[in-house]
Design goal:
The chain has 249 residues and is α+β, with helices and mostly antiparallel strands. The protein is 16% helix and 36% strand. It has one domain. Strand 3 and strand 4 form a beta hairpin. The protein is elongated.
Length: 249
């Protein structure tokens, strides 16, 4: 009959015991460091597809970036056609009582305009956000055929992006809204506070190359066509003529 002999455990020497304890402390500290650097599992871009028509003279059209039941930004479009000409304007800005929100803006003379960003632009800290309503497009004309237009969204034929800053529970978040053809077609935000977002990024598997350049559409010079109407074919024709003139200079 075999007997199972109990094995005796030799005590560790004080020196070896100290080394084991030191190793355990270092391993624990390293693990805590990795955990502190890791982002929360729910870190992501929240994207909302949309198809909202921006109708002139129908009051403000709001949208809620983070779906908390509070409007974050709003559009306001107006147009008027009279015997003496035409006047049209499209503005965007923080919704009422959202004083911490802002729109990436550029200057056109004395006017603060909403930047028309291309896909792939980084929207984040240190960008020039304006907390007031800013003009996306302004156009006017007279019966004599003279007119003026300013701000980057005048006559754009392709979708472009607004750069947005807003707050969630007092913390700053960044987002974008895509506008084209008179429609709001989608918007997104980064749910990690103070983290930049790339225009066009939806959190899906698509690859969007980031750029630190503003990549805004050119601000138009004064126009001289008699049918400068926001969203009308006339604006597109005028912009093409401006581009052709620039290429010949």
């Amino acid at each position: 009959m075999k007997r199972h002999l109990a094995r005796s455990v030799s005590p560790l020497s004080p020196c070896l015991h100290q080394r084991v304890n030191s190793y355990a402390l270092m391993a624990s500290a390293a693990g805590m460091s990795v955990l502190s650097l890791a982002q929360p599992a729910d870190a992501k871009i929240i994207y909302t597809p949309a198809h909202v028509k921006i109708v002139p003279n129908h009051g403000e059209i709001y949208f809620d970036l983070n779906h908390d039941g509070v409007n974050d930004f709003g559009f306001y479009a107006s147009s008027a056609r009279t015997t003496s000409g035409f006047l049209g304007r499209l503005d965007v800005g923080p919704a009422k009582l959202q004083q911490g929100n802002g729109v990436w803006s550029v200057q056109s003379g004395r006017h603060a305009c909403a930047a028309a960003l291309r896909k792939g632009v980084r929207v984040g800290p240190k960008r020039p956000f304006n907390s007031n309503n800013v003009v996306m497009a302004f156009a006017s004309s007279t019966a004599g055929g003279k007119g003026t237009a300013f701000c980057p969204w005048v006559g754009l034929t392709k979708s472009s992006y607004l750069g947005l800053k807003f707050t969630i529970k007092g913390k700053v978040h960044f987002g974008w809204a895509r506008v084209g053809g008179g429609f709001l077609t989608g918007y997104a935000y980064e749910n990690i506070a103070n983290k930049a977002i790339i225009t066009g990024a939806t959190g899906r598997d698509e690859v969007v190359e980031a750029s630190d350049a503003s990549q805004t559409a050119p601000i138009p010079r004064a126009a001289s066509l008699g049918f400068l109407a926001l969203g009308s074919p006339g604006l597109s024709i005028w912009r093409r003529k401006e581009q052709q003139a620039d290429s010949k200079r």
